[in-house]
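Q: What structure does this chain adopt?
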Amino acid sequence: MPSMSTDAIEARLKAALSPSHLAIEDDGARHAGHAGAASGGHFNVTIVTEAFAGKTRVARHRLVYDALADAMQNGIHALAIAAYTPEEFNNLPR
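A:
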């Protein structure tokens, strides 16, 4: 099964969550040959949005998964999520 593109993931997350920052890394090359790799891609997402304010980590991840719902069944095998509010993101050590 073909992997979903980073552009397609970006479009869905922007439409659903209006992030102020969004970085998507296709990590598929590191997982080539792994049993689940054939069922879709491996991605790392860092997303920053006001939509996460007051939400738990689990609730934030649910919002991301909801935006990518059908892709989680067809095109995405694994998704690592770093989800922040703008304030949290600005306070990260650099």
